């Protein structure tokens, strides 16, 4: 009998762990695999919000590549005109092998026009590092790109699919309003213990796209976080004293290089502005996280969905040590004894 008492508990723990693993994997984090000579995936804009969850960032116009349910990868393309990057040493699939590329650009809408990529979301076949493949990592060179959208083998159009599932997700959110509000109310009661909610309420959405080459299916994952809280602004402190100004340079013209414009540094450019006091937001944040995934076949049809259940959370926002109010000025320097 003792053996059977523990089995349901173990199953419950296992189910909880699996659910947490599934939640963590809903938006991949630092998940990279090696790539062969060619790979089919989605080339997309607006990938920075997902990159930010991994602590990565790039230019506002960057395009990223997604395949196999892995993290987004940056791709470089052969430069047309003045290159952004020169003589980049790129690791290849074969261990220890490196290939040097003399002139590259980080993929952006203008840089991929040479491959006839015209949409912010496109299904493409990419030649990886001139067919030499890539180890697991966050970037590689797309030496060739072939657009597959609307072809006989791949009739779907990714841009249209994104529009359709965005609308479907908003409809899903509307249908869940009551459940979301109930969860937020319960989270507030548990977190604030009678304190008044000050707001503001904030909503953050993440959209993750990927292509599964073996199944020939596209996946679009939406994850939404709605947060609220009870907050207060506290003083960030004042400096001990205004720092002394830097010494001024002699008021003479600095000898410029031949052909350059002469320049004399004005005082306002040399003196350092004293730091000012500032406010810090503190308090308790509570909220809910939920989402939904859409599975799309090669024809552009939604063939399945997966729901990320509503889960509540609480976070504390504390002032950093050393803050909290004005600090005293130092005592005056004692007079010099004669």
Characterization of the model:
The protein is α+β, with helices and mostly antiparallel strands and about 350 residues long. The chain has 2 domains: about 30-145, no CATH class; about 155-330, no CATH class. The chain has helices spanning about 1-25, 50, 160-175, 175-190, 265-270; strands at about 40-45, 65, 75-80, 85-90, 100-105, 120-130, 140-145, 200-210, 215-235, 280-295, 300-315. The strands form 2 sheets. A 5-stranded mixed beta barrel has the order 1-2-3-7-6. The longest helix has 24 residues, at about 1-25. It starts with a helix and ends in a 21-residue tail after the last strand. The model is unreliable at about 1-15, about 260-270 and about 325-330 (pLDDT under 50).
Question: Which spans have pLDDT < 50 for at least 5 consecutive residues?
Answer: 1-17, 260-270, 323-329
Radius of gyration: 28 Å
What general form does the structure show?
A: flat
Mean pLDDT: 86
- Strands, count: 11
State the helicity in percent bands: 10-25%
**Which strand order does the major sheet show?**
1-2-3-7-6
Structural class by secondary-structure content: alpha+beta
| Topology pattern, helix = H, strand = E | HEHEEEEEEHHEEHEE
How many DSSP H or I helices?
5
The biggest beta sheet, please? 5 strands, mixed, barrel
Percent of residues in β-strands: 25-35%
Number of structural units classed as domains = 2
Measure the end-to-end span. 94 Å
């Amino acid at each position: 009998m003792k053996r059977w008492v523990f089995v349901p508990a173990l199953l419950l723990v296992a189910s909880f762990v699996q659910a947490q693993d599934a939640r963590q994997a809903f938006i991949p984090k630092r998940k990279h695999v090696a790539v062969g000579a060619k790979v089919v995936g989605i080339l997309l804009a607006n990938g920075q919000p997902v990159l930010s969850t991994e602590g990565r960032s790039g230019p506002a116009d960057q395009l990223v590549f997604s395949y196999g349910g892995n993290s987004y990868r940056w791709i470089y393309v052969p430069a047309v005109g003045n290159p952004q990057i020169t003589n980049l040493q790129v690791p290849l699939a074969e261990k220890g092998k490196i290939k040097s590329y003399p002139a590259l650009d980080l993929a952006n809408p203008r840089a991929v026009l040479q491959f006839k990529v015209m949409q912010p979301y496109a299904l493409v076949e990419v030649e990886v590092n001139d067919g030499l493949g890539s180890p697991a990592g966050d970037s590689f060179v797309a030496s060739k790109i072939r657009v597959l959208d609307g072809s006989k083998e791949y009739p779907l159009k990714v841009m249209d699919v994104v529009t359709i599932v965005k609308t479907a997700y908003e409809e899903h959110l509307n249908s869940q309003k009551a459940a979301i509000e109930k969860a937020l109310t319960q989270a507030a009661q548990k977190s604030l213990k009678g304190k008044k909610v000050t707001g503001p309420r904030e909503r953050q959405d993440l959209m993750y796209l990927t292509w599964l080459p073996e199944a020939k299916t596209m996946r679009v994952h939406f994850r939404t976080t709605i947060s609220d809280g009870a907050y207060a602004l506290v003083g960030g402190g004042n400096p001990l004293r205004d720092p002394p100004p830097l010494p001024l340079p002699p008021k003479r013209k600095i000898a410029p290089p031949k052909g350059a414009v002469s320049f004399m540094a004005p005082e306002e450019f040399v003196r350092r502005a004293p730091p000012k006091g500032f406010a810090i937001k503190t308090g308790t944040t509570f909220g809910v996280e939920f989402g939904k995934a859409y599975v799309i076949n090669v024809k552009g049809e939604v063939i399945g969905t997966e729901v990320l259940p509503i889960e509540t959370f609480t976070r504390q926002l504390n002032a950093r040590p050393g803050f909290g109010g004005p600090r005293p000025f130092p005592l005056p320097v004692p007079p010099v004894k004669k």
